Amino acid sequence: xxxxxxxxxxxxxxxxxxxxxxxxxxxxxxxxxxxxxxxxxxxxxxxxxxxxxxxxxxxxxxxxxxxxxxxxxxxxxxxxxxxxxxxxxxxxxxxxxxxxxxxxxxxxxxxxxxxxxxxxxxxxxxxxxxxxxxxxxxxxxxxxxxxxxxxxxxxxxxxxxxxxxxxxxxxxxxxxxxxxxxxxxxxxxxxxxxxxxxxxxxxxxxxxxxxxxxxxxxxxxxxxxxxxxxxxxxxxxxxxxxxxxxxxxxxxxxxxxxxxxxxxxxxxxx
Length: 270
Fold this sequence. Notes:
- The chain has 270 residues and is α/β, with parallel strands linked by helices.
- The chain contains ten helices and 14 strands.
- α2 packs parallel to α10 (259-267).
- The termini are close together.
């Protein structure tokens, strides 16, 4: 057993899903389910902190036995899993989303757009990622005709790796939005200023009297960096993005080797 970074077991576990808690086939292992039960038995809370929208979290939570809270869409939505209701939503003004979209399409020719509402995806026909709750429009101009709330802008490209897209976003000087990505799939995720996984998690914890020093976090991609560096202990997954590995000192094993569960077993004495 390695030395714990906590004098007592942490009060809250914040974990990403894809590439972290979930195996590569999208399932939650029995060992991970047992570890999550051990956390609950110790009186600590588990919060899923994910880029996924709530409609994808329901099935994952059922498979994990999770009946708590999920912070979804990179911090834009706080979701009560058992009640299947939004507790909070940090919206993106249409004008802000449109300005960012136009700048990114200019910087990344051939890219396509979609708007995440929290309930469904509104996307251009050629958008590279499909969704089981999707409305398809024929042109980018039609995206801005919708009166639905926006929680996240998605920009997809078949031509560029997400890291190169991030460089383009930086060069475009998009100072009035948060831009990140969840991996090398060629997609940027854009939120309102200040909307990050860590920002929303910090507010959620503060309302419950939980300090950052009492939180352990797990993640693997750039959109997890804010959480990993905010928490008292942030574990990067083995095989995670190079930027994440470079910014963190602690490591969990690979997601396909129950890396999160192994750390939780040590922290909570399972």
